[in-house]
């Protein structure tokens, strides 16, 4: 096998599974494009995007040296989608508009004890 990580190749789709697309790189070598590497964003069904016999340009992401499995990507060759400023900015969901303030437990402790003792039928302190 004389492929290297980062090589851009053209291959032919030989199989489509729910988890990815198998691509034949040469007569004896096949790789897998995992569903997460097919395109940017969500992919519902690979059958809607690919068909057997279709030629694809892919990049090699990884080659397992023991099993000789090749991981491929289509997404790495696509330009990243534009992100709006809304997506780039961090949002912190807080209660900034509610000003409850901080009160120490000691400030409420006497009223809580008195309420508890009243419920228990005992005279308060």
Describe what you observe in this structure:
There is one protein chain. With 125 residues, the protein is of the alpha+beta class. The chain has helices spanning 85-88, 105-120, and strands at 8-17, 20-24, 30-34, 55-63, 70-73.
Q: Average pLDDT, to the nearest integer?
A: 84
Strand order of the largest sheet: 1-2-3-5-4
Helix amount? 10-25%
Order of helices and strands: EEEEEHH
What about the largest sheet?
5 strands, mixed, barrel
If you compute it from the alpha carbons, what radius of gyration comes out, rounded to the nearest whole angstrom?
30 Å
Q: What's the total helix number?
A: 2
Quote the beta fraction. 25-35%
Unreliable residue runs = none
User: Terminal Cα separation, in Å?
Assistant: 86 Å
Shape: elongated
- According to DSSP, the number of beta strands is 5
Q: Indicate the structural class.
A: alpha+beta
Task: Outline the fold blueprint.
Blueprint lengths: L7 E10 L2 E5 L5 E5 L20 E9 L6 E4 L11 H4 L16 H16 L5
Parallel strand pairs: 3-5
Antiparallel strand pairs: 1-2, 1-4, 2-3, 4-5
